[in-house]
Amino acid sequence: MKKTFLAIAVIAASATAALSADDPIAQRKALMQANGGAAGLSAGMMKGEIDYSPAAGKAAITALHATAMTFGDFFPEGSDMGADTKASPKIWEDPAAFEAELAKFQSATAAAVQASGRAGPADLDAFKAAVGPVLGTCKSCHESFQIK
C-alpha cells in the first residue's frame, strides 16, 4: 500500500512541476514524467507487481486524463527547436495528424474516467478494461511523434 501512495505522490508532484514552468519543453517533459508515473503504476497493477486498489486505479486514470487534456497546449511554434526535446518535427509538419492523435488520447482517458466511477474501477479486470486503451494511445503517439 505504501508503494501505491508513493507512486501517487510522485505523479502529483510531477504534474505540479509542469504547471509552474514557463518553458513549453520543460512543461511537456514534466507532463510526460507524470504520465510515465501513472502509466508505470498502471502497468505495475496490471502485471500484479503492485496490489490493485480502486483508489490507486482512479489516481492513475485521473493523472493520465489531466495530461491528455493539457498536453497539446505546450507545442507552440518554435518549441521544436529546443536542444532537449524528443518531440518529432512531424508535430509541426503535420499538426492535423498530431491533433488527431491527441484527440484519441483525450477520448480514451475520458472513457476511462467515466468507466472508473467515483471510487475507481471496482477490480483489476475493470481497471484493465478502462486503462488498456489509454496506454495503447500512448504507444501510438510515441511511435509517430517522438524522436527515439
Automatic annotation (TrEMBL):
Keywords: Electron transport, Heme, Iron, Metal-binding, Signal, Transport. SUPFAM superfamilies: Cytochromes (SSF47175). Residues 1-21 form the signal peptide. Heme c binds at residues 138, 141-142. Binds 1 heme group per subunit. GO terms for biological process: electron transport chain. Pfam families: Cytochrom_C_2. GO terms for molecular function: electron transfer activity; heme binding; iron ion binding. The keyword Iron applies. GO terms for cellular component: periplasmic space. InterPro entries: Cyt_c/b562, Cyt_c_II, Cyt_c_prime. This is Cytochrome c. It comes from Oricola thermophila. The lineage of its organism: Bacteria, Pseudomonadati, Pseudomonadota, Alphaproteobacteria, Hyphomicrobiales.
